[in-house]
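Would you mind writing out a protein's amino acid sequence and the numbers that encode its backbone to help me picture the idea?
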Amino acid sequence: MEPSSVCVVRLSLKQRYFLLLFTAATLIIVFHLTRNRPEVSRMNRVVGLQAESSQFTLERKPFRILGGSVHYFRVPREYWKDRLLKMKACGLNTLTTYVPWNLHEPERGVFKFEDHLDLEAYLHLAASLDLWVILRPGPYICAEWDLGGLPSWLLRDQNMKLRTTYSGFTEAVNSYFDQLMKRVAPHQYSQGGPIIALQVENEYGSYAKDEEYMPFIKEALLSRGITELLLTSDNNEGLKRGGVKGALETINFQKLDLNDIKHLDGIQPQLPKMVMEYWSGWFDLWGGLHHVYTAEDMLSTVTEVLKMNMSINLYMFHGGTNFGFMSGAFAVGIPAPKPMVTSYDYDAPLSEAGDYTTKYHLLRNLFSHYHTQPLPDLPTRQDRRAYHPIVIEKHLSLWDTLHFTEKPFKSERPVNMENLPVNNNNGQSYGYTLYETIITSGGALNSKNSVRDRALVFVDKHFIGVLDYEVQELAIPDGKGRRTLGLLVENSGRVNYGNTLDEQQKGLVGDIQLNTHVLRDFMIHSLDMKPGFVSRVESSGHWLSTRHQPTFPAFFKARLYVNGSPKDTFIKLPGWSKGVVFINGKNLGRYWSIGPQQTLYLPGPWLHRGDNQVIVFEEQETDGKIQFTTNPDYGMTVDVQ
């Protein structure tokens, strides 16, 4: 007799057969329900991106990087998904992005990683769309971005040596990386995230002032939990000095030179070859022409690169916009820096407003041959609208807004922007600075090349002329008694590339003279035009109607009424001279009649139904209305040489 505590169930052969079928069916259902769940994918990950033979491998299987650069900080957050879906539909499998230190730490120790700077949300989005990510965290990024992404408060240190192991720089980098990498590390491939590689600094071979610097940056990454493949990125000349042991070197170019590829192969034979930056277009400078690079030349080079079994990243796939005051300046091979325009369209495959171009369609066709499955359908194009012109309703002189700034600073000598005691003693980063002093005579005003970058000169608020790198002397008319000399100095953009990064202080960086007499005793107003200032100006009770003649420089107010769903548009300002446009408090960037750029991109999500507040800061002239168009105007074109 069997013990009463044990229940024995005897099944017939038929019952056993059905039980076996049920169990098998259950296992199949569970497998299909769970195989695409993120946590299971994470568990199954063993080996990330490797560069141990002539071809990249991912999970030990051959892998070719078909990448494109889209910078989250140049695209409205509402359009991140649109741009990345279009990237995926073009046949790309990898997103690359820089990380701008100067936006994420605008004041020393104050970090911003929310809203349009939510890097983790961007990484989550890439992962959800099955895009891998190569992250290029800097700390220096170049990117045609102000000071190459380095925060301007670093320049308060008169001994600062940027991109070196100078302690004042490394301490700041370490503090920043402490915050950045704790947000980045969880998104690595080994942790179930999309990041398959990270870049160690950027194009250091073109700078290379400190042989200990690249090892320092590499260790700064490794010591903070970075375990994925490390890369460096340089042009052909920079390859000689820009590498660091333990990181794969990649190359940047626009036109293919087989000698460059042989050079790269000679540095690291039998390792994967990658073009980290294949320049699909080029950037523009104020006062120049709009650069274009033909679709046929681009396609020919990309085709050849792929035939050589190389990986590639398109810089840029989608350029976007240098909103606000963030565009940099160019100073290589020219006597003085030239500021970059607001648009970063770059003549890229996806336009500034996210439109498909001829380049896009040619690349999509090419990349489709490197996929076993059909590419996704093209996402629909964003609608645009040419709103009716709007008329300026009110104006407010710059002089009547000075009480909305931080308390003016009295100083015997001129003080540059970065060293002003504003923004919690982090100095002024962007915008304008007004320097005022008393004069008792007329004569020759000489800037002694101390203006960085451009100054409007006033006597008792009457415009006299402009001082800049080319014009360094102005005639001041004679007058009686004490008069106020004012210099409204604009930071037009700090140099983002080259050997002069340490010298990018703005405002008045030295003495100025009147008739060889050095001027002293200044009252200095910081006009950084941040959102709080613009909001205070908007709510001022001193706005004048258009019945009164404006006193320049001035702010101009108008309303854009939107009926229905807001759409993207472009602003154009014929008859205006130079200034900045704010829509609902957001800084769209600079405009300047000298071109080449003649329109400013206004994203639809930054508008709302009903009245929208438009404020324009204009330096010298206006025709009293603001126009809109559905198409950008980037000016006369020139082929990239």
Summary: The domain at 38-368 is CATH 3.20.20.80 (TIM Barrel).
